[in-house]
Amino acid sequence: MAFTVIIPARFESSRLPGKPLMEIHGKPMIEWTWRQAKKSGAERIIIATESLEVQHVCEAFGAEVCLTDDRHQSGTERIAEVIDVAGIKGDEIIVNVQGDEPMLPPELIHQVADGLMAHPEISMATLCEPIEDVETVFDPNAVKVSRDVANRAINFSRAPLPWSRDSFSADARELPKEWAYKRHIGLYAYRAGFVKQYVSWPECPLEQVEKLEQLRVLWHGEKILVLDALCDAGVGVDTEADLIKVRRLLESPTSENNGGEF
Fold this sequence. Notes:
Layout: E1 4-8, E2 23-24, E3 27-28, H1 29-38, E4 44-49, H2 52-60, E5 64-67, H3 75-86, E6 93-96, H4 106-117, E7 124-130, H5 134-137, E8 144-147, E9 153-157, E10 182-191, H6 192-200, H7 205-210, H8 215-219, E11 224-228, H9 240-249
Parallel strand pairs: 1-4, 1-6, 4-5, 7-11
Antiparallel strand pairs: 2-3, 6-10, 7-10, 8-9
């Protein structure tokens, strides 16, 4: 199965400026992410960035880089430009791997690409994992996903969705026995032609409220396949605290998810 990984790596991150080049045990974060992607079986891996500095660093460790417009509002818009510049055909499968995922297991990259390949009627595929504590259900930074009987997304939300009338009372909150909450993992596979269609649509009202790009897909009636992740997705880096945690986890070659193995 052939697929291409594109890694958006924006230097001017709003929460952590310069994030792609932040050092983790002697190597920039983006190199850790790229090396994990290389183990996935992808036919091609392209780093997409608006930064000349990031471009030079990535080319120095051997990566293919596409310098993109600095006005893009999302990683998906950046990917759409790469598809044009690189001449990627509309039926080719693209996996969007965020540049701040230095621990992302390669098998998850392959899983989401394989899932989309197996469902030609689906526009997009992504992953989820179990939520095992009620605190995460109520955490707005943890995106919850609901699925139908065929594992297609019904909705994504930062809120505790669905709301358990019996378990989420004013004086007590516990996980309901009748529902298994799932946290969305922000790893996407889509066909190149669908990416071009997606960026042609304006933001939808739900997306504007929740600040979740994937809601635009559901708004326009397209299906998203949501698979149960084969393993733990590791720790992504959104904050300084996340970076400290990742550095600790990657201290040895036997670290979680084998992220430390070069």
